[in-house]
Specification:
With about 100 residues, the protein is α+β, with helices and mostly antiparallel strands. Helices cover about 40% and strands about 15% of the residues. The protein folds into two domains: about 50 residues, no CATH class; about 50 residues, no CATH class.
C-alpha cells in the first residue's frame, strides 16, 4: 500500500514506540479522512500482542467498527465502568481496574 508522508511518519513513530517498549499506549491523531483507521488496522494486523481500538466519541468508534476495527469503543469505556447511582439517580462511574488500559 502507498502511504502518505504523514502516514509514513506515523508508521515510523509506531516502530520507534514498539522498539522502546516503555509505554503501554500509542495514540494516533489526525483529521477526519486522513487515513487513521486504515493505518490502525494495518498496524494491528502486524502487532504481536493485544490491541484495543478506541476513539473519543461513540460515533468515531462506530465508524472504526464499520471499517474493520473489531471491538472499537470509546476511551471512556476502556477506563470507566458504571458503578452505581447517586441520590438523584445520576449514574456514577468507577475506574475499571481490570481494563486493558489500566
Amino acid at each position: 500500500m502507498k502511504w502518505s508522508p504523514e502516514q509514513d511518519a506515523a508508521l515510523k513513530a509506531v516502530d520507534q514506540w514498539l522498539k522502546m517498549g516503555d509505554r503501554q499506549v500509542f495514540r494516533l491523531f489526525g483529521y477526519a479522512g486522513a487515513g487513521k483507521t486504515t493505518l490502525a488496522r494495518h498496524l494491528a494486523e502486524g502487532a504481536g500482542g493485544e490491541v484495543a481500538f478506541a476513539a473519543f466519541t461513540g460515533k468515531a468508534a462506530h465508524v472504526m467498527r464499520q471499517k474493520g476495527c473489531e471491538g472499537a469503543t470509546t476511551i471512556h469505556s476502556l477506563i470507566y465502568r458504571p458503578a452505581d447511582e447517586d441520590e438523584e439517580g445520576a449514574l456514577v462511574f468507577a475506574i475499571r481496574r481490570d481494563a486493558p488500559a489500566a
